[in-house]
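Ticket #4471: structure output looks truncated?

Reporter: J.K.
Steps to reproduce: submitted the chain below (130 residues) through the standard prediction queue, then opened the result file.
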Amino acid sequence: MGRRKPRDGADAAGADRLSIRIDLASGARIGPGKVAVLEEIARSGSISAAGRVLRMSYRRTWELVEELNTSIGVPVVATAAGGNGGGGAVLTAAGKAIIERYRAIERDTAEAARAHLIALNRSCGGKPSG
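Returned output as attached by the reporter:
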């Protein structure tokens, strides 16, 4: 998928990986897709560019941002209207915090699960990774 890099728990082709989705008490759902959208918006400064990199339509990309805005209760992306000078998008403090906390949870979970994944591979006749 575009320029996305593997994260902890998915370091090499064929390696075991965890996929984390967080369901907050507020009803907010935060998972790899929404976090990838926020990261691409931070890199590109554009919702449409983020969608292109992630091979999503602009509409779907915007829907994911809006789902976060609504469920978190504060904007995660600040936008400027397009025009001659062009528009743009930047992450708010809440958007940056979502990425930071999600990636920390992902790292900690991968570390905690490592021995279990090795044991699971062994018991399933697979080759242990990492």
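Triage note (M.O.): checked the attachment and the full token line is present. DSSP finds four helices and four strands in the chain.
Status: closed, working as intended.
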